[in-house]
Design brief:
Radius of gyration: 19 Å
Number of domains: 2
Low-confidence stretches: none
Largest sheet: none
Helix content: over 70%
Number of strands: 0
Shape: elongated
Strand content: under 5%
Number of helices: 7
């Protein structure tokens, strides 16, 4: 296929995806660039993983259990839990504004590295393998939902 025709096809596919119309596209088009299109959600997961490392660093535990009045460290943990959802949404929006697919792939790869480090040094369990499995399943669900283009439909 000539490069000009291929460029027009990609532009048309992006137009349909941006308007939440993935059903118009061929199944192969939905799988193309799925990792770069997953970057905003993967960045949000990376922020949660980084927050998990913060919780473990401050409390020394993989769970949050506050008895009575929270001390300073527990207060910081509670504040971080309140701030994570809006900051994750903001981070996802900022990553979605990255102009080129190559840079979005870079952001997704960096986010994946943060998720792996977060699973090793943080996570919901003290067992690293369990944390890695949970993280892998979470990223896989995001990629599958992106491949099915739930993001375009919900957006």
């Amino acid at each position: 296929m000539p490069p000009a025709k291929q460029a027009r096809r990609h532009a048309a596919e992006r137009w349909f995806l941006a308007r939440g119309l993935p059903a118009v596209l061929r199944p192969g088009a939905l799988l193309r660039r799925v990792w770069s299109r997953s970057a905003p959600a993967v960045a949000g997961i990376a922020l949660v993983a980084a927050n998990s490392m913060l919780v473990v660093a401050l409390t020394g535990k993989h769970t949050i259990d506050i008895d009575g009045r929270p001390d300073l460290g527990e207060g910081v943990v509670l504040a971080s839990l309140v701030l994570v959802p809006p900051v994750a949404v903001l981070m996802g929006w900022l990553v979605s504004r990255i102009g080129t697919p190559v840079r979005r792939v870079g952001a997704a790869n960096l986010s994946l590295a943060v998720i792996v480090v977060g699973a090793i040094f943080g996570g919901p369990s003290h067992r690293i393998v369990v944390n890695l499995v949970i993280s892998a399943v979470t990223v896989a669900v995001v990629v599958v939902l992106t491949a099915g283009d739930m993001g375009a439909i919900l957006g």
